[in-house]
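CORE FACILITY INTAKE
Project code: CF-77B
Contact: R.S. (postdoc)
Sample description: multi-component assembly, two entities in total
Requested service: structural model of the whole complex
Turnaround: standard
Below are the sequence entries exactly as provided by the requester. Do not edit them.
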Amino acid sequence: MIRIQNLNKTYKNVQALKNVNLEVSKGELFAFLGPNGAGKTTTIRILTGLAKLGSGAALLNGFDVGNRSVESRRQCGLVPQSINLDRELSVFENLTIHGKLFRMDKPERNARIDELLDYVEMGDRKETLVKNLSGGLKRRLMIARALLHSPSILFLDEPTVGLDAAIRRKIWALIKKIQQHGTTIFLTTHYIEEAEFLADRVAFLDKGSIVVVDTPEALMNRMGTWALDHLKEDDMETLYFNDRKEANEHIAAHKDSFTLRRVNLEDAFLSLTGKKVS
Amino acid sequence: MIQSAFAVYYREILILRRRLTRLIPSWCVSPLLYLIAFGFAMGKLVTLDGHTYMEFLLPGLIAMSSMTQAFAISSEINIARFYWNIFEEIQAAPVSDFSYVAGEVLAGMTRAFLAILVVLILGFLFGVTLSLNPWFWLAILLNSFLFASLAVGIAMLVKSHADQSLMTSFVITPMAFLGGTFFPLENFPAWAQNIIYFLPLTHAATAIRSASFGTRPSGISLTILGVTGIVFFSISVLCVKKAKD
């Protein structure tokens, strides 16, 4: 379980996080959605002990992250935004280093490495050098590495950034599978469909503040079910309808060109913050 | 704590092992050039305190190599920090700042010892054999510990890989030439001797040279190396804390 209370963080006179309060339950998949610079990565860096806490409190399964205790770091696994694998070393060597850093005994470590490589469908890549892996395989390896010491909380910072749609879907399936095994997952993303597909609950983050926290369905239902995009001079106007019939009637009543689509989280984000996520 | 330090060390050793076939030739180049240029070309004309110049030069080259190779761990740390983001992986693990520094310093010392073996083999091929007694190894241990500790601290303070190169140019290169590697300290003017006395490499070269000639090195030199090493190590631990945020 993750508990954040009145969390503030300032970098060189810029307030990156403003009074963030949040609770994530055990086994929940929670997504932080916001544009670049909203404070998503800062939150993860604080929770994983990579950045100092400004003020407030943050607890992982009851362990205070503020003092960077060994126990708080044992609770979590981290998949950062950028690839941070040793490219010159093999898949097995990368995982072994992680296991040693988390003080795992050799028999336990090796068994877990085999188990996880099968889990992420990389069992045949054990001796492959990381520099010879594709982007998608590197991401899967990073997820396997983060799970190696069996953390109860997994932090995924933009886990599919830079990957093509097919690989992204594979990573999503893997994330869902991890959640089904009882791991709490804290995910940051600026991909709308990622948050919609994966998250049990979503927090909209804008300029370091949480705007709203709710389920994706509830956030989208605030807007209606159908959206009509209408290009009006230089601006895009979007109208929202609860049923498709109403939307079609609106199209019929106007001679302009409309695009009819289902409401998504971007609409909710736009309505609450006045800006787009991506 | 020891387990974590060895995990950090293990990573560096795996990388070192992968690069060893490329590193060994690079470790040969500078000492080989100095041995040929200064040892062969100039050395035949010079004797110092009853030793040939080649015998005088080789311990100096050993001191210099142990310094440069121990300090080279800073480049490895910087590549891992600025280009590969590995520093985060280690910092997110339950590894104390002390353990991290200890692991990296140990890796720097290992590099230094391997590079020294290369210089010793080169010296042997040039017909120079030294007394490899415990004092000799102690002086090398202290010198490599000192410069590896300095390297970790500097690697944590610099903001880019380019800054790191500047530190090498301004700290390590001058010390390599002024620290008693090539010339006896007594040949410098008095004012310069007073400055050079405070360079750690001066004490390393003096101690390694004494031990190489079969005499016990000065206790003052060994103490200065040891104390400076501990000070640099402690500062490095503090620098890791600063580098995190």
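Facility notes:
- Chain B touches chain A through 25 residues (CB under 8 Å).
- DSSP finds ten helices and two strands in chain B.
Invoice: internal transfer
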